[in-house]
Amino acid sequence: MPTEIEIALSNLRERIDDIDTSLLDLLNQRAIVVEEVGRIKKEHNLPIYQPQREEEVYEHVTTQAKGPLPPEAIRQVFEGIVDQMHKIQRDKAERPKDGEPMMVVMEPGVTEPQIERVIARLMEGGFDVHRSTSAVHTVLGAVGGKPEFDTRIFEVMEGVKEVHRLVSPYKLANRAFRPQGTIVRAGEVEFGGPEIVVIAGPCSVESREQIEMAADIVADGGARAIRGGAFKPRSSPYAFQGMGEEGLRLLRAAAGRRGLIVVSEVMDATQIPLLCEYADILQIGARNMQNFNLLRELGKIRKPVMLKRGLSATIEELLLSAEYILAGGNYDVILCERGIRTFETYTRNTFDVSAIPVVKKLSHLPIIGDPSHGTGRREHVAPMARAALAAGADGLMMEVHHDPDHALSDGVQTLNPTQYMELMQQLRAIAPAVCRTVA
Ligand code: PEP
Ligand code: MN
Hints:
Number of domains: 3
CATH topology of the largest domain: TIM Barrel
Radius of gyration: 26 Å
Number of helices: 14
Shape: globular
Order of helices and strands: HHHEHEEHEEEEHEHEHEHEHEHEHHEHE
Bound molecules: phosphoenolpyruvate, manganese (II) ion
Strand content: 15-25%
Helix content: 40-55%
Number of strands: 15
Oligomer: single chain
Distance between the termini: 34 Å
Largest sheet: 8 strands, parallel, barrel
């Protein structure tokens, strides 16, 4: 039998191991950013060793030292870190060019001058070209170009059959960046862990009474988060536009009473401070998925962001939008499949369930499904929620209202309390089959 002291020590050591894992993750993130700095230095022939910048780093960390580690100890630790990071930059500078690898496949009947024109154009773009020619086929392997190089330029050149990029254009959102996956924490709630997190609530906050009732329904059903728009992106300028700050205040109060976290939409950069004050997760609506200025601003905050797929966005575009936020330094991004526009008109959107496993393969970021906007009709929400869970979603977002037929927005796709309770029961039954849980 282990003694009490042994148990206490073993628990504390487990915590230390967890902290070390987080430190390791952060150090690797730092190394990736440092590599990028190294790349820019090399490109502009700047020296790798910049003593003044190094002093700034030490100044930055030691002035923030609040103990128990004294500033001198912090400085020593960071000297070691900076030293190792310099090594990475030097190694990188000495290695041959990496850049973007791609492959240009030529048509079978291509002429020699056509091949030469493509090679010349590749070299102009900074690529090293490796040619392989058989009796019929010619393939040009190219490495070292700039990532932003537009490969379509080659697609339209004479004699070219097809062009393939060999690495993805997003780096930080790529699964390779964190193969083990990312867990995004909002309060006590974790997206990307074993629990499937349910976010439920009305499309919009309409009144104190409505949102208080919603909080009771949502919490009684077992959802961990309440949603409710205070700023609404409506297709018509004459439709209800949301209650603004008053709506956020009411939402926060109702959530607090029932121990729920708050998800609400931010429509433009000027609203970010307000949303940060009231919400635990900032939602970016489908219509704003490519509002790059807004995405850049969201990269600067330290709050989780839920990024919804645009109405006609490809999965790659969704991941590139996430990349904007990650590149700014905010790694807490949750993706959301909410249906896309297709030629089908029976449903409001086509809920792309297959995007869920695809995103899970391509990216380390958690992804949730929103079958309410995904289908636009309440009778189809439950089947698609079940499908999304089975397909590997890390969470679900559903619109729920005490009286959906009188909701001020999206009533048609909003579940009534009975439908919501039933769905939660079904989700609890399905989750174990895919090794997950629902609260
Ligand atoms: C919403 O969630 O209320 C919303 C407006 O969704 P979307 O941006 O996906 O249309
Ligand atoms: Mn809605």
